Amino acid sequence: MNNKLLTSLLIKLEVASVIFLLFFAETVVLPDAVRTLTNVLSYGIVILLVGVQWKRVAYVATTDKTLISLIAVGVFSIVWSQSPADTVEQVRALVRSTVFGIYLASRYTPREQINLLAWVGGLSIFFCLIVGFAAPSIGTHVINGVVSWRGIYAHKQHMGRFMGFIASVFLINSLDKRSNRWFALALLSLSLILIILSNSKTGLIIFLYPVFAFPIYLIVKQRKNRFFILLIAVFILTIISTLILVNLESIVVNFLGKDIELNGRTPLWILTIQKGLERPLFGYGYNAFWTTDACYDVIRNTWLWAEEIDPKMPFQAHNGFIDLFVQLGFVGLSLFIFNLLQVINRVVNILFMTRTIESFWMFMFLGINVLVNSSEVITIMSTNSIFWIIYVSIAFSSALEYRQIRRVQYINSFNQA
């Protein structure tokens, strides 16, 4: 076997491994034995991939010190965790997911990452349709008396959330001349159909977000004055926010089909925050709050009690920011918010500097991630969500690209001088 053929084979194997890791990053329903095997394989694959590129990965890891500091707080929370065994177990998975995200940033450009995600999304749609039609007892379940699709995922919300997210990838590809635009449009349509079948209102909102945000990219491409563009964006967002606030009750009750307390989430959030304030600085430890007796009062005084939630089983507050607060306190929450603002600032600057469609996708993803964490399951530092992997990848990819752009600008200004 000649060197070119061997190199090509290794590259294809690497790409297949990355797609495998991204596909199983979400909560795919598997038999216990297969799940264990997949978990073990994921650690081995990440170690192998990073080991080959360890110098590059180590360098990339230095480009976003705030995010690394946040991970360090999570790891060292083993020391003060109220449930050290759970924290140790989940910290290993957290490090794996984070290192894999850094690897993606070091190995692939944002455009290449979008292509990888398109493969993952296409496979997910295919298997969700197959399972939903061929094995409805597995691919569907009854929620509140309504049959809802969940495909290969554990819950309808998981499928709806993922389809809403992956739709942003297909939207980008459908508008990019470098992609198979008709195929991307077909997958975009199928993702919407699956969202509708799931009856996931959250998934639908996530799907609509990039659709309504896309005009911003069209404005950016016009190369007008940045201040004027931002003024328009702020004006539009102000109008939309005002309309939402004025019609909040109608939107929540009639459209989303929830009560004004978001199906009891408001009391859940308040009680969880109150428990978090008992350990405000560093929290209860990474992934520790919902597996200790500390959460018992929250469960007993909310709808979780009626649902017979076991206090010893992992749960979450349906809000990523609140969950992060009870896990790592104000220190962890402040580090993440500061990092999020840094990443948004970098991505916006890159968007105005390059005006590329992949930079706009990064901007859209950050909005989707905030949206998901505002009223859904936690994806911030989550060990079973593709959202955290992609957030890490975007954080470091944007740091690398911003450094490169600034370096080129400096060289050009030096040469002109």
How would you concisely characterize the structure shown here?
With 417 residues, this protein is mainly α.
Strand content: under 5%
First-last Cα distance: 53 Å
Structural class: mainly alpha
Q: Number of helical segments? A: 18
State the helical fraction: over 70%
Query: Biggest sheet: strands, sense, closure?
Result: 2 strands, antiparallel
Number of E-type strands: 2
Written description of the protein model:
It is a single chain. By secondary structure, this protein is an all-alpha fold. The protein is built from 18 helices and 2 strands. The protein has helices at 3-23, 32-52, 54-61, 65-76, 84-107, 110-134, 136-139, 156-174, 181-198, 201-220, 226-246, 248-255, 265-276, 296-300, 303-306, 320-354, 357-375, 386-416, and strands spanning 140-143, 146-149. A two-stranded antiparallel ribbon has the order 1-2. The longest helix is centred in the C-terminal third of the chain and has 35 residues, at 320-354. The model is unreliable at 241-256, 259-263 and 308-312 (pLDDT under 50).
